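INTERNAL TRANSFER SHEET
From: sequence group
To: structure group
Subject: AcrB/AcrD/AcrF family protein

Please process the attached sequence and return the structure record in the designated field. Keep the field labels unchanged so the import script can parse them.
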Amino acid sequence: MQIDRYKAAKLGISVEQIQNILYAAYGAEQISTLYTPTAQYDVILELDPKYQTDSSMLSLVNINSANGNLVPLTTLAKIVNNVGPLSISHFGQLPSVTVSFNLQDGYSISDAVPKVNQAIKGLQMPATITGSFQGTAQAFQSSFSDLGLLLGLAVIVIYIILGMLYESFVHPITILSGLPTAIFGALLTLLIFNSELDMYGFVGLIMLIGIVKKNAIMIIDFALELERTDNKSSHEAIYEACIIRFRPIMMTTLAALMGAMPIALGVGTTGAERRSLGLAVVGGLLTSQLLTLYITPIIFLYLEAAKRWLKNSNYKAEIRSYLELNWKD
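Return from structure group:
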């Protein structure tokens, strides 16, 4: 049905009024209810079915104009026979088209989503047409967007626990100082092997945080114990801790590497899907292992020197005197 909107506007008739009068003429409406001792019956008023399919009956339908006159509906609308869709799907009150796809064997949803996005860009659709994922792909995207937040929360929780354990705000920073190099190594490994940072890769990063901080804890905890019990300086304590704890660190790191190696190689029927997890763990462990024994002791010495400087300096007295002077003024 094509509505002459210009003519309808001149008569003060809106499209919504035309829709309502069409529904009143051709639709069904409950006008009353009959009650009996045992049941109730709805009274439905509707047009005789033989007239519902006759387009010529449209001339019998009238609509009130703005001045109260009855206007035949045929003067405002006409029925045009044409080929069109049986139904029009809508999403968010906008016309939409659903394109479904199934995954081939050996491919995961993380592989399909970038390919679909690339295909959409290749269509060069106008700006008025947008696309979005639904179903499993949408669930994957929503869960993937929250993984970065989970990674940050994992670091914060570890920092709080370490702060409570060592009763210090400084030593957790020393322990977590190896995380940037580990994450850099994991991302570099994924890039070298042309593997995307999917959900499994993020799980590998979270696992990497726990393994890398464990190596730093083995060094820092031993160094602090030497400072307390043997009254050794920071240089002597961290040097001896690195030498003594080198073998346990290497053993635990190699054990984790060997355990993640089959996953990194993609062994198994669905090994290709989990390959990014193994690559992230192996790459992060290799880089962190090479740099932790150098970065962690240096940061430990710098932070210990900063603690001693703050402890021995008279900055507290200076702040107190400054506040007293301002209070007097």
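Handover comment: Strands lie at 2-3, 29-35, 40-45, 62-64, 70-72, 77-78, 90-91, 94-95. Residues 166 and 172 are 8 Å apart (CA to CA).
Transfer complete.
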